[in-house]
Amino acid sequence: MELRPQLKLTQQLVMTPQLQQAIKLLQLSRVELVDVVRQEVEENPVLEESLDGFDAESRALEEAVAQAPEPTVRPSSEPSDPEARQGSREIDWEKYLENHANQAPMAGGFRPAGGDELPPIESTLGNPETLADHLRWQMQMTVFSQEEQAFVNLVIGNLDGDGYLKEPPVAELAAEAGLDPEDAEEVLGMVRMFDPVGVASRDLRECLLAQVTALELDADVRDIVDRHLPNLEKRNYAAIARDLGIEIDDVYEVARIVAGLEPRPARNFVVDQPRYIIPDVIVHKVGDGYFVVPNDDGLPRLRIAGFFRSAMDADPEAREYIQNKMRSAQWLIRSIEQRRRTIVKVTECIVDKQRDFFDNGIRHLRPMILRDVAESVGMHESTISRVTTNKYVQTPQGIFELKYFFNSSIRRSEDDDIASESVKIRIREIIGGEDHRHPSSDQKIVKILGDEGIVIARRTVAKYREMLGILSSTRRRKFF
Predict the structure, then answer these.
(1) Which residues of 278-301 are buried (b: 16+ CB within 10 A; e: fewer)?
(2) Is residue 455 part of a domain?
């Protein structure tokens, strides 16, 4: 073995920082894009928000690039990258800034009389009371020792989203609080009687039994909840009646009462903030045609600040710093505009391939995969996946995520294949119109769909039903 210098020519894929930035921006949602743009505006002094918009700024940059001299071509072992070549051309920033010199200054934001800025509306809203706050307030109103209070605080801190204490074990919490395990069980029973009753239960049985005690319900209700909760869930009322020696009508009455109890004590304290969806593109129907328009409302519009021209002339050392910041700003503006055009291009392709959906609704959604769009627009499937994730389109049929239009196909006996999403809608309709005393089994749904020419397996019906959050036929059956 020996060490010696050796020249080797290889080819490899090199992603420039600018290309990485473009890919990153492409997969961001609209909200995330706004956050990134605002952060860049804060960190890059040459960027400012403009009233012109992305198109005008992008055209100005392209003109500046067009006027720049071609770089000297040197042989290299690195792969050729058109984006990297274009980015390596030096822009005449003085010419670019001169073109902006005669533009009107950016309009300032509105300020109320007195010059004081009003606080945002969200800062004036009160925070709703959480379940933990509500329970700690009740704890303060109850006579507990210091160790018991420490234990209750640990219990409250370990409740899940439904208000249950699934883990860790009570003995472990008692040991951490310095409380005897038997005393801990007694304290936990007191907490279960807090409002909402049943909170801090370890399972559904404990939760319902606490409510039975608080409501002082009769012995039959307690016995059925305590001993026959699985049969009650399966609606096996005959087995309950036989075991307890009571009439089946009495079991029906208990089932009605239990159905009125609360299986999720924390339900009223789950505060879900409203999620507002702003579409990235809008599909307008004009006559018999559809037109895709980007939705730029609410997006910061960027341009490069013109006042840095004097700084470039005055300080040679600042010139290099400013030019680097301008290159960064240039790539950000280009990447945003490229993202915008790509989303529009992909949406136009989706509209073209899903014309029946836009004309007639969800029942007419056609099967489509990423490859179908990728081949049509000349992009890679991974790019289509990035473009359609967390991007929304407003259509005459409603607002949908772009990924919604990609569906696997279900075979039909005669007509063209149907989209899986359309089959799900049909399954929901079948179950919605069934007799609740005799609900349709999965096999019966298979037969109904088969009569309509849709060939589907029973396990697929079961999978779609579970995806729709619909119970099995035995659990949907109602006896009263």
Answers:
(1) ebbbbbeeeeeebebebbeeebbb
(2) yes
Q: How many domains does the chain have?
A: 2
Copy the structure tokens of residue 48: 């400012």
**How many CB atoms within 10 Å of residue 106?**
15
**What is the average per-residue pLDDT within 341-361?**
90
pLDDT above 60: residue 352: yes
20: tokens are 């990485």
Element (H, E) at 395: strand 392-395
* Average pLDDT estimate for 254-268: 89
Is pLDDT at 31 greater than 80 in this prediction?
yes
User: Identity (one letter) of the amino acid at 372?
Assistant: D
Structure tokens at 354: 């899903």
Q: How many CB atoms lie within 10 A of CB 466?
A: 11
Residue 461 CB neighbour total at 10 angstroms: 23
Q: How far is CA 313 from the centre of its chain?
A: 48
Two structure tokens written together for 227 = 């001993």
The two beta strands, 281-286 and 392-395, are parallel
Q: What is the pLDDT of the chain when averaged over all its residues?
A: 78
Q: In what order do the strands lie in the sheet with 289-294?
A: 289-294, 281-286, 392-395, 398-401
| Paired tokens of 469 | 């959050």
- Distance, CA of 118 to CA of 120 (rounded, Å): 6
166: containing domain? 131-269
Taking only Cα atoms into account, the Rg of the chain, rounded to an integer number of angstroms, comes to 33
> From the DSSP assignment, how many helices (H) and strands (E) are in the chain?
23, 8
Residue 238, by phi and psi: left (phi above 0), alpha (psi -120 to 50) or beta?
alpha
Bridge partners for 78 per DSSP = none
Compute the distance between CA of residue 402 and CA of residue 353 in angstroms, rounded to an integer: 13
Q: Is 0.70 surpassed by the pTM of this model?
A: no
The answer to whether residues 193 and 210 touch, using CB atoms and an 8 Å cutoff, is yes
When pLDDT is cut at 50, 70 and 90, the band that residue 172 belongs to is: very high
CATH number of the domain residue 467 falls in:
1.10.10.60
383 and 319 in contact (C-beta within 8 Å)? no
CA 412 to the chain's CA centroid: 33
| pLDDT band, residue 148 (cuts 50/70/90) | very high
**Residue 463 CB neighbour total at 10 angstroms:** 14
Domain end point (choices 212, 243, 269):
269
If pLDDT is split at 50, 70 and 90, which confidence band does 137 have? very high
Domain boundary among 240, 269, 298: 269
Beta pairing, strands 47-49 & 418-419 = unpaired
Q: Which residues pair with 304 in a beta bridge?
A: 47
Which long-range CB contacts under 8 A does 403-406 form with residues at least 24 apart? 405/350, 405/354, 405/357, 405/365, 405/368, 406/368, 406/369, 406/370
Could you tell me the two tokens for 307?
């006042």
Least Cα distance to 210 among 230, 232, 225 occurs for 225
